[in-house]
Amino acid sequence: MTDVSSGSAPDIYVSTRMRVRKSKLIAKDEYRRMLNMGLPEFTRLVEEMEYKREIDELSSSFSGVDLIENAMSWNLAKEYQRIINLAPGELKGFTRDYLHKWDIQNILTILRGKQLGFSEGKIKAVLVPAGALDAAALDHMLSESSIERVVETLPIKAISDIISEKLSAALDKKSFGEIENDLYKYYYATLLKAGHGGMMGADAFLKYVVFEIDIKNITNLFRIRAQGALTSEEQKFWIEGGNIKPEEFMRLTGAPLEEVVDSLKKKVKAPVLLEALEALREKKPVYEIESSLTTAQLEQMNRMSKRHPFSISPLLVYLERKKYEVSNLRALARGKQAGLDAETLEHYLVM
Predict the structure, then answer these.
(1) Could you tell me the CA-to-CA distances from 233 to 177, 179, 182, 205, 260 in Å, in that order?
(2) Exposed, middle or buried: residue 151 (CB in 10 Å: 0-12, 13-18, 19+)?
(3) 294-328-347 Cα angle (round to 5)
(4) What percent of the chain has pLDDT over 90?
(5) Residue 318 exposure: Cα atoms within 13 Å on the Cβ side
(6) How confident is the model at residue 224 (pLDDT cuts 50, 70, 90)?
């Protein structure tokens, strides 16, 4: 049932703007046309899209696929900042909390890039300053002489404290996996706290956060199953707060595939997720599983936005769809550069 009884005038205005923005994103048919293009034709098409301004701005510093990647990342960051400025009241707070994931992603990218000895330019090319850390803050982190200095000077204390606690062990093991788990646990705990805060619109936000936690845990379940046995460290991997308890995921890590699918289907209600899980009875590569689960997640967001048309839902739908448009275009650019055929490339797209 569609909830049309709530929503202030600013909320209605922003929700309408988000639907208009979403309608302008690339459609499935257009992606399929792009799959069959050569790299030069694809590049010309991208240069004619809304990324043209960023491509022109960065053309003196980058070229080829590097130019496309950097231009799209910069466009995404600027668009997200525009959305934050546009969102009123509680929607602005929820949006900022939700986009905090980009701070975590950017910080981890910098830490891993420095650990692997990548140049500042190579690391910067994949950063998206869409969270609380803007381009200047990320540039400052990149300029630090060591990983320890990056963490010491982090302006977000909660994240700095989480990383500092396990940094020495991570450097010894040459893995930031446990730190990544702790950061995303912190992130989702923050979202759940906002959703339980009692503010107007919190109910729709909370429903989506719980659903996203389930999707993330299910995705990680299949990743772990593909990698082999669960280690003692990975037992702390699961995120609390979803409809499916961490204990159930622990049990399913070593269970037969049929049992995994049957058990998960008993715990979820969203029809789109039920359909996606049923399709996983056939053993598939992890990247195909992730793509199908992400598609189900986006479809569920669409449905929630129709039920709650003047809430945070239309805004979240647009944020995620825009993110995957950029991700898809980057995958197409790199895939075509690498000579991948259209059928292979399609598996990496979220449409």
Answers:
(1) 10, 11, 12, 31, 22
(2) buried
(3) 65
(4) 61
(5) 24
(6) confident
| Beta-carbon contacts of residue 224 (< 8 Å; ≥ 6 apart) | 230, 234, 237, 253
Backbone angles phi, psi at 284, to 5 degrees: -130, 160
Give me the DSSP letters along 221-256: HHHHHHH-SPPTGGGG-PPTTSSS-HHHHHHHTTS-
What does pTM read for this prediction? 0.87
- What are residue 163's phi and psi, to 5 degrees? -70, -45
- Which single residue is written with the structure tokens 């499916």? 244
Helix (H) or strand (E) holding 282: none
Question: What is the rounded distance in angstroms from the CA atom of residue 126 to the CA atom of residue 128?
Answer: 7
Tally the C-alpha atoms within 13 A of residue 147's C-alpha that lie toward its C-beta.
23
Residue 111 has a CB neighbour count (10 Å cut-off) of 22
Dihedral of alpha carbons 59, 60, 62, 65, sign: positive
Q: What is the pLDDT of residues 281-291, one digit of tens each?
A: 888 888 888 98
Number of H helices, E strands in the chain: 18, 0
Distances, alpha carbon 51 to alpha carbons 56, 307, 320, in Å: 9, 32, 17
How confident is residue 40, by pLDDT bands cut at 50, 70 and 90? very high
- Residues whose CB falls within 8 Å of the CB of residue 339, separated by 6 or more in sequence, listed in order: none
- Chain segment 2-32, per-residue pLDDT in tens: 444 455 788 888 989 999 999 999 999 999 9
CA distances from 11 to 86, 87, 347 (A): 10, 8, 37
pLDDT mean across residues, the chain: 89
CB 188, CB 100: distance < 8 Å: no
Rg from Cα positions in the chain: 20
Query: How many residues does this entry show for the chain?
Result: 351
Band of the pLDDT at 192, cuts 50, 70, 90?
very high
Which amino acid is located at 240 in the chain? E
